[in-house]
Amino acid sequence: MPRRGGGAGQGGASGGGGGGRRWNNDGGGRMHNYNGNFEHDDRREKNQRRVSFKQNSNKNKNRMFGSALKRLEEDDIDMKDQAVVGNISRNNQFYRGGFRGRGRKDGRVNSPAPRQPFIPKKLIQGSSPWYQVTIPYGNKHEKSFILKALLTALAPDIFIPHCYNIVGNTAIFYVDEFSIAEKLNQTDRKITLPDGFKLGVKVKSGIPHVTIEGSVIEKMKLAMANRYNAATKALDLTKFHSDPSLIDVFCALFRPSILIAAVDIIAENIPDLEALNLNNNKIHSIENFKGISKKLPNLKILYLANNRIPHINSLEALKGFPLMELFLEGNPLADRFKEKDIYIREVRKRFPKIAKLDGADLPPVIGFDVSDDINLPPSKPSFLCNVEGQGVVKQFLEQYFALYDSESRQPLLDAYHENAMFSLSASYGSSLNNHNNFNNKLNSYTMHSRNLLRTQDRDVRNRHLKIGRLQVVSFLNDLPKTQHDPLSFTVDLTVFTPTMLMLTINGVFKETTIPTSSTSNRQWLPPIRSFHKTLVIVPFGGGFCIKNDILYVTNATPEQEAKCFKTPVSTPTPVPVQTAQIPAMTAPPVSANYAPNADPRQQMLQTLATYSNMNLEWCTNCLEQTQWNIEKAVIIFDQLHSQGKIPPEAFIK
C-alpha cells in the first residue's frame, strides 16, 4: 500500500509484482498516478470548500470490475494472482465499502437476501362473536376437501362452518368463536394443496347477512319441533344457530329480527310453553321480550346462561312473566355482584315468586297472606288526621298565602317563630320540564337549593339554611313575586295535638315578576311552578306560628298547567298575621255534633260556605244530597273540586 505524504509534491513508492506508482498533486484535491486512476485525498486546508464530481463514465467499468471481483472471490485463485486481484479491488468502489456486505450476512456482494418465513397477520378480537373466513380461489376445490384440510390442521379442535357459500372465485364461511377464528388465521399459507400451491385463509370480524324469508321460517319451525318436549312443555334452544338443520342459514338468536321471529313461532305453535332454554346464544339484549308476556302467559322457567346480558336492569323486560326459576350464570350482570345476597335481592325485586336462581334453591320470602287482587281504597285530595283542626288550618293558610302573594312579605314576620328554620330545594324533576326553555328556568331557586344531589358541600348547605325569622322573611322577600291558585291546593294534616300541628301543602303558583334578563324580542310568559311545602306549626301566645318550613319548587306538569287558574276565586284581603289575632281553635270545628243555639242546619250551611267558598245555593244543594251530614259534604266537595267538576257559577256570590 502506498503511504500518503503530508504536502504537495511529496510522494512515495511501492514495490511489488505490479510495478511502482508515482503520485503528483494537480492542485484540485486529487492525486494522479501513471496508470490514469484517481485516488481521493481527504486532506484539505481549513475553510477550503470540498468539490466532488460524479464519474458516470466509470459506472460500467466499476460494474465490470465488481463482477470480476465476485468471480475471483468465489473461485480458487493462485497466490501469484493476488496482486492482480488486489490491484483491481483497490481501484474498485466496493473496496471502499460502498456496497460490501449488503444483503448477505457473509459479506458477499450483490447476493439476494434470504427469504423470511411468512407470518400471518394477527387477528384482533372484535365486539361481535362472529368471524368471516375467506378462502381465495376456494371455488377450485370441493367444500368437503377445504373443510377437511382445515379440520386436520386444527386437530384436535373442531369447528362448525356457518353459511358456507361461493362468491366469485372465493369461498366464504363463518365461525362463532374467537379462539377458533384465531387458529384458522394461523393456517394461512401453511396447508399445501395437491397442485403445489398454498391454501390462503383470511379471517376478519364479520356477521352473516340475515333475511327472514319463508324458507328460513320453515327451517326454524322444523328445528324447534325437534327440540320441543311435549311431556314437560319445554323448548331447548341452546346454541340454536349450531343446529344441524340450520348450518346453511344464519339463525343466531342474538339478532333482534331472528329472536322476534322465534318468539312469534313459539306463541303461534306452543302457547302453553312453561320452560324455555336460551343458553349459549350470545344474547346481549332481551328488550324484545317486552310485551310478549301475554303471548306466553305460562312461562315459569327461563334459562339465559352464558349469554352477554350486561346489566341487572335488563331484566325489566321480563317482569311480566310469572317466573319461578331463572338461570343467569355466565352473564356480565351476574359477575357485577360481589355479594350473593344483593344479587338475589335485585332479582327478587323483579320476580317476587322466584324460588330457584342459577340452579340453587332460594329461601322462602317472608310476606303476608294477602290476595294479589286486593283493591286499594280510593285516594283523597286532602287528609285530616283530626277534623277539628280543619278550621285552624284553613284560616291560617288563607292569611299566610294572602301575605305571601302581596307586594311586600315583611308582615310574615309575625307568622314565624323567633327561632324558625327554613330550607329550600329545587330541581327539574321530570323530563316534561323543559329547562332549556327560558320561561322554565329555575335559577332563582336552584342557586339557593339544598338538594343533596346538587349541593354536596356541607358548608354550602349550611349557609343555605335560614335560621331565625329575620333571615327567613328576608330571604322570602327576595324570591320572585307570586300568585298562588288556592283551588289547586291539597292539604294533608298529619299531626294535630295541643302542642304541634304538621301539615303539607301541594299546589301551583305563577311568577309575576318579569326577569331583568328578558328582552323585547323574547316573549315572556308567567311561568307556572309546582310546589310542595311542609310546615310545623306550634302554639304561641294566643295563636300559632311556624317553627319549621321546608319548600320544594319545580316546574308544573302540563296537566297542572291545563287546570290551574281556571276558576275565579275571591281573594281574601291580606291581614297582617299576628299570633295574638289567631287564637287556638278560633274557627268552629267541622263536626256533625256541633250545634249552637241557632238552627243546626243554618250553622252547617255557614260552615260549609266558609270552607268551600261556594255560594249558599250550592252549599244547600250539597248538604241536602248528603242529608245534612257536614263531614260527608266536605269530603264530597274535596273530591269534586280536585277533579274540576264544580262549575264556576258555584263560587259566584
Brief overview:
This protein is of the alpha/beta class. It has helices at about 60-75, 80-90, 145-155, 180-185, 215-225, 255-270, 330-335, 340-350, 390-405, 445, 460-465, 470-480, 560-565, 600-610, 615-625, 630-640, and strands at about 25, 30, 40, 130-135, 160-165, 170-175, 200-205, 230, 235, 275, 300-305, 325, 355, 360, 385, 415-425, 465, 480-485, 490-495, 500-510, 530-540, 545-555. Strands 15, 16, 17, 18, 19, 20, 21 and 22 form an eight-stranded mixed sheet that branches.
Write the layout of secondary structure elements.
Elements: E1 24-25, E2 30-32, E3 38-40, H1 59-74, H2 82-90, E4 131-135, H3 143-154, E5 162-167, E6 170-175, H4 178-186, E7 202-205, H5 214-227, E8 228-229, E9 234-236, H6 256-269, E10 275-277, E11 301-303, E12 325-327, H7 332-335, H8 340-350, E13 356-357, E14 360-361, E15 383-384, H9 390-404, E16 416-426, H10 443-446, H11 458-464, E17 466-467, H12 469-478, E18 482-484, E19 490-497, E20 500-511, E21 528-540, E22 543-555, H13 558-563, H14 600-612, H15 616-625, H16 630-642
Written account of the structure:
Helices cover 26% and strands 17% of the residues. By secondary structure, it is α/β, with parallel strands linked by helices. α6 (256-269) links the parallel β9 (234-236) and β10. It is elongated. The N and C termini lie far apart (135 Å).
